[in-house]
């Protein structure tokens, strides 16, 4: 018997049992991880200032999942078929040491794409460290180029210039094609749409207009405040003709369009007027370890207790696969009917991210 055969390293077996499709046949392919429920902004459509007293009880550090716990759950999710991770919040850059978490997640075998959504205020400080840690993509939120309207959309916090500085910092750090999210509220920032389109035409960045959604319970959502994406497309098309592009993949939330004159791409997330629940492969993990199977779910499934209670990875895998297999969520497709029936209670957006 040869000694080297006895000492040769045993190849590490990575367990991948793809989660069963949910009750509507949708795979589990994306995970959005909220790392903190706090935010330095108070956007009225998400976390309206008048609803949050200064002493509002946000999660305490020990209630939040630690980096070890997030990494472990992310590995379990990836082993179940998740390929894309998105780090979000609240404002994710308020979570201390975020680049370290990113570098841990970047090493997960099987994970193909990792993005971060941020309001940008702190990005210049972290862009390079995030890039070096292995983050692939960044989405920045920017609702107007007009300083007054911007501040109104951010709840009186932040400055447009900070976001533009964040764009430049991200470019310098090597993030070449950013996504720029703009939520449009009728009567508030509609007039910001064309200037934003003009600003990002001809760049590699993809501006995306998002319909205002009835997330959470506190934002006083009204259907007449939603500006349908089709209306925005008509306006933009009248100035700079657009042509539809095919989606990169069916689970993408935005429809893709390109400027006919070659000035790049623009997207529309028509989540209210043209829901896309049929292709929704997204799970959401809150900062305190609850698994939400829909952005409009009323409650989540606690993964922190089993995690801290010493359950094995196999047990966590079975738990998550079981939850996913029963998933029948399609709130946006049933919005009118459910709202009429009084189903108005949803998890707050800042707890589960976008
Ligand atoms: N704080 C970060 C930010 O604003 O980019 C990340 C978290 S935030 C909840 C993620 C995304 O959700 C942002 O682009 C934000 O504009 C969007 N969002 C928040 N509330 C929304 C609403 N009621 N309707 C549509 N989009 C919303
Ligand atoms: Fe904060 Fe983002 Fe919500 Fe605005 S949208 S309040 S920046 S979490
Ligand atoms: Fe997915 Fe729920 Fe949004 Fe439908 S409403 S696309 S199921 S998160």
Main traits of this protein?
TIM Barrel; 12 helices; globular; binds S-adenosylmethionine; alpha/beta; 354 residues
How is this structure best summarized?
The chain is α/β, with parallel strands linked by helices and 354 residues long. Helices cover 30% and strands 16% of the residues. The chain binds S-adenosylmethionine and iron/sulfur cluster (2 copies).
Q: Would you list the SSEs in sequence order as H and E? A: HEHEHEHEHHEHEHEEEEEEHHHH
Class computed from helices, strands and strand pairing: alpha/beta
Question: What would the CATH topology be?
Answer: TIM Barrel
The percentage helix is: 25-40%
Task: Tell me the name of the CATH class.
Answer: Alpha Beta
Give structural notes.
This protein starts with a helix and ends with a helix. The protein has about 350 residues and is α/β, with parallel strands linked by helices. Strands 7-8-9-6-5-4-3-2-1-10-11-12 form a twelve-stranded mixed beta sheet. Helix 7 (about 195-200) links the parallel strand 5 and strand 6. The radius of gyration is 21 Å and the shape is globular. It contains twelve helices and twelve strands. One iron/sulfur cluster binds near residues 42 and 141.
Secondary-structure blueprint:
Layout: H1 3-7, E1 30-34, H2 67-79, E2 84-88, H3 98-106, E3 113-118, H4 123-133, E4 137-141, H5 147-153, H6 160-173, E5 179-184, H7 193-200, E6 206-211, H8 229-239, E7 242-245, E8 255-259, E9 265-269, E10 282-285, E11 290-292, E12 301-302, H9 304-308, H10 313-325, H11 335-340, H12 349-352
Parallel strand pairs: 1-2, 1-10, 2-3, 3-4, 4-5, 5-6, 6-9
Antiparallel strand pairs: 7-8, 8-9, 10-11, 11-12
Helix pairs in contact: 2-3, 2-10, 3-4, 4-6
Bound molecules: S-adenosylmethionine (SAM) and iron/sulfur cluster (2 copies).
């Amino acid at each position: 018997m040869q000694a080297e055969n006895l000492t040769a390293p045993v190849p590490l077996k990575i367990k991948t049992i793809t989660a069963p499709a949910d009750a509507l046949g949708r795979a589990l392919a994306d995970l959005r991880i909220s790392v903190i429920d706090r935010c330095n902004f108070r956007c009225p459509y998400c976390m309206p200032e008048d609803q949050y007293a200064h002493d509002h009880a946000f999660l305490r550090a020990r209630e939040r999942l630690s980096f070890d716990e997030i990494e472990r759950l992310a590995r379990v999710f990836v082993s179940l078929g998740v390929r894309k991770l998105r780090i979000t919040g609240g404002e994710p850059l308020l979570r201390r040491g975020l680049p370290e978490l990113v570098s841990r997640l970047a090493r997960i075998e099987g994970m193909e794409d990792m993005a971060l959504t941020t309001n940008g205020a702190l990005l210049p400080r972290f862009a390079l460290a995030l890039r070096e840690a292995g983050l692939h993509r960044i989405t920045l939120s920017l609702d107007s180029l007009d300083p007054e309207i911007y501040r109104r959309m951010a709840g009186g916090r932040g400055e447009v210039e900070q976001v533009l500085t964040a764009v430049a910092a991200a470019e310098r750090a090597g993030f070449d094609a950013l996504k720029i999210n703009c939520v449009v509220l009728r009567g508030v920032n509609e007039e910001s749409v064309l200037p934003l389109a003009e600003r990002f035409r001809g760049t590699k960045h993809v501006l995306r207009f998002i319909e205002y959604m009835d997330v959470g319970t506190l934002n006083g959502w009204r259907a007449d405040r939603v500006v349908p994406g089709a209306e925005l497309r008509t306006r933009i098309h009248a100035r700079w003709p657009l042509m539809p592009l095919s989606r990169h993949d069916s689970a993408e939330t935005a429809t893709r369009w390109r400027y006919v004159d070659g000035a790049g791409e623009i997207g529309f997330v028509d989540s209210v007027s043209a829901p896309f629940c049929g292709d929704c492969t997204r799970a959401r993990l809150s900062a305190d370890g609850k698994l939400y199977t829909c952005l409009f779910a009323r409650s989540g499934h606690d993964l922190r207790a089993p995690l801290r209670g010493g359950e094995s990875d196999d047990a966590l895998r079975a738990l998550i696969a079981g939850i996913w297999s029963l998933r029948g969520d399609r709130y946006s497709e049933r919005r009118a009917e459910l709202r009429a029936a009084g189903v108005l209670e949803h998890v707050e957006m800042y707890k589960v991210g976008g």
